[in-house]
Amino acid sequence: QTMSNQKIKKAGGAEPDEFEAQVAQELLNLEMTSTELKASLRDLYITAAKEVDCGAGRKAIIIYVPFKLQKQFQKIQARLVRELEKKFSGRHVIIVAQRNILGKSYARSQKTKGLRPRSRTLTAVQDAILEDIVYPTEITGKRTRCKVDGRRILKVYLDGRDQANVEGRTDTYAAVYGKLTNKQVAFHFSS
């Protein structure tokens, strides 16, 4: 138990719940057994994990990683996700960086003057979450469609070259993005 706790460090030193401990344990097992991931995983840890319902009886696993470690996770993301999805039979695994959103009334401390950074605004964080969700596929375009009843649907165009690999996952992507941001999104592939 204590070993797997090194793989998850929650904000404020909170205890990981049962599911998070399970994910941390799987990461530790991979570090111990997988020769190709061993060195890469040694210094990496996650900050949280949760399971979300994607409808039609499917579930996905969202793994939150520290923003500073995201680049290192992305180097091994394809292999890591493949291994974790084998372990958590059939559930899609999505890795998202832990980001802070600062409200409009945010005031900096006296030492540092200035506005809140653009990267901490709600819009910027939600855009970044979308990019994390579809990684390693690139987003080639976005359109917002406003329906007559006032609902907005974000149409996201993904790189057509990845269509074969990603097509089966777009429903999961949309469900996860909806859960995290309360925004409806539809994925299309650019030709």
Question: How does this model look, in words?
Answer:
The chain is α/β, with parallel strands linked by helices. It has helices at residues 2-5, 18-33, 35-41, 70-87, 122-134, 163-166, 170-181; strands at 48-53, 59-66, 92-98, 139-146, 152-159, 184-190. It starts with a helix and ends with a strand. The model has no long low-confidence stretch (mean pLDDT 87).
Compact summary:
By secondary structure, this protein is of the alpha/beta class.
Overall helicity: 25-40%
- What order do the strands of the largest sheet run in, or round the barrel if closed? 1-2-3
Output mean pLDDT: 87
Please tally the helical runs, counting DSSP H or I stretches of 4 or more residues.
Answer: 7
What's the multimeric state? single chain
Low-confidence stretches: none
What is the rounded distance between the termini?
A: 48 Å
Percent of residues in β-strands: 15-25%
Shape: globular
Structural Rg: 18 Å
* Helix-strand pattern: HHHEEHEHEEHHE
The description of the largest β-sheet is: 3 strands, mixed
Q: Please report the total strand number as a whole number.
A: 6
Structural class, please? alpha/beta
